[in-house]
Amino acid sequence: MRMVYVVHVIDRACRAAILRALAAEGLGVAADRVFSELRAAGSFVALDDLTGVAELAVEHGVGKSTISNWAARYPGDFPAPLATFAMGKLYSRSDVREWCQDRRPALSEGEGV
């Protein structure tokens, strides 16, 4: 069975506007907590957090094939793509960054980070 996820994508300006409106009502702290919980649940992704394999490769100083190899080699551990298009897979930059930071020593020994 294939799982389907709904991801709400908003940009920083929209998020800031929502936070300002809620802060005006005295709910600013609650709003930050809501965004954090939505992010943790995987149902909120900031627009500037969306990235492709090529951008991830540049950010982490590896080739595109290394990113693809990590995804294939560590299924269930490497962050799942948020979407797959004809042009490639779309990932959460922060999820991949966190994954790499957690594994940098092990990856450095033989996988190009």
Describe the structure.
The chain has 113 residues and is α+β, with helices and mostly antiparallel strands. It has 2 domains: 8-47, no CATH class; 49-108, Arc Repressor Mutant, subunit A. 54% of the residues lie in helices and 15% in strands. The chain has helices at 12-24, 28-41, 53-60, 64-73, 93-108; strands at 8-10, 44-46, 50-52, 83-85, 88-92. The strands form 2 sheets. The protein has a 3-stranded antiparallel sheet with strand order 3-5-4. β4 and β5 form a beta hairpin. The longest helix is centred in the last third of the chain and has 16 residues, at 93-108. The protein is elongated. The chain starts with 7 loop residues before the first strand and ends in a 5-residue tail after the last helix. The model is unreliable at 1-7 (pLDDT under 50).
Radius of gyration, Cα only, in angstroms?
16 Å
Distance between the termini: 34 Å
> What is the overall shape?
elongated
Strand order of the largest sheet: 3-5-4
Low-pLDDT stretches are 1-7
CATH superfamily of the largest domain: Winged helix-like DNA-binding domain superfamily/Winged helix DNA-binding domain
- Largest beta sheet, briefly? 3 strands, antiparallel
